Amino acid sequence: MKKMKFCMSTVLALTLSLTLGSTVYADSLTGITSTNNTNLYFESNRIMADQLAVNATSNLLSIGSLHDITIHEPTMVSNLNLRSNILVTTTEGTMIVQVEWSDYSGVSINSTTQLSGKAVLPPSISNTANIKLDVTQKVVYKGSGLQSNLGTVMDNKIINIPPATTIPELISNLTYNGTTLTDTDKMSAIVVDRYNETLNDGIVDDGDSLQISDGLYTHTYYLSIISGTPSNSSLLLSIIPPQPILVPITGMEGNINLPIVRIDTTSGIVNLPVQWDIPINLSISKNVQITGTIVMPDNIYNLGGAQFLVYQDLDYKPIRIPSTLGIIGKNSIMRIPVGTTVSSLINSLTNADSYSLAVKDKNNNTYTLRTDAAIETGDSLVVTSGNTNYNFYLSTLN
């Protein structure tokens, strides 16, 4: 009789607990060692084993986020000490779960990167809403971003700085993330010697160091000067701008001989080649300006930071060479009388003595015939003005 009373009181307690919403774990009840036994005790209340299993777990509502990691030097992912757990929100409150990161072994970070992993839910947390378990960790790289026109930036060094470079010249030729240091108040740069004493002027020397600061972090670069000045080295003093080129006729751009550029150095005047930037399908029917970049040899130092960009003006001056025989078009002389000789054609040209003239046959061979040889359709007249050749197609009357 006492045993029956105990069972009834247990059933009543369980019924009240479920009615009030409390969590009941089946294995915690006296006399119940498995959820498979619940039907034996609670069949009258229709409490099934799977209902107790739901009550025994919490349900995932959301996954938290991780703060960004800021680095100032390139580093391996393995050195970041990534968080091994993350907070999640469930129906039972916040809990800590593990994070399983992707395999980043051997990966070096030298730019802002986003790493990925997944939250690993324990059996006690269900994910009935199929919430994505993705976890991301943003690594913000605040590297130097330093570039120098004088020398080469390599890791924490600036090497190959030309000899006799002054401290103001070095700093004025530095850019940080594309901005010249002298044009921003967010960055500061100082040069210190090996005794950590600040240098405001004078010549940069081996053993000095450059300190770049953004107010929060200071990045130090060790300076290295080119050892030994080559005997044939010189310093750039100025760039001599090229003179305009007269373009007598449009449509002949391919025949224009663009010039080299002269520069003045401590060793005298030097002629240097130029990489000209000629627009595709350039048509010269008016004055045009094109740009080019001087190709500077290694033994000429540009300590003044001169720009190697040069400009070439092409001034359109139509050629003035009318003919009393035939009709001169844009690049042709048409309706030449049949039987006209080479000498007759040249003598018919006005201002012919202002140019160098030659007649070529249809195979582009210069005439080796007598000057009294007859012009044929397909021959050409070559007019040379300065360094530029202009071809006029010749055709006779039909």
Features:
single chain; 398 residues; mainly beta; 5 domains; seven-stranded mixed sheet; six-stranded mixed sheet; 5 helices; 31 strands; 38% strand; elongated; disordered N terminus
3D structure, described in words:
The structure is a single chain. This protein is mainly β and 398 residues long. It has 5 domains: 2-56, no CATH class; 60-141; 146-225, no CATH class; 234-316; 327-396. The protein is 11% helix and 38% strand. The chain has helices spanning 2-20, 38-42, 49-55, 167-172, 342-347, and strands at residues 58-63, 69-71, 75-76, 85-90, 93-101, 108-109, 113-120, 125-126, 134-141, 146-148, 152-154, 157-161, 174-176, 179-180, 188-192, 198-199, 209-213, 218-225, 234-240, 245-247, 261-265, 268-272, 274-277, 288-294, 300-301, 309-316, 327-328, 332-336, 356-360, 380-385, 388-396. The strands form 7 sheets. Strands 2-9-7-5-4-1-8 form a 7-stranded mixed sheet, with no helix packed on it. Strand 13 (174-176) and strand 14 (179-180) form a beta hairpin. The longest helix has 19 residues, at 2-20. The chain is elongated, with a radius of gyration of 43 Å. The chain starts with a helix and ends with a strand.
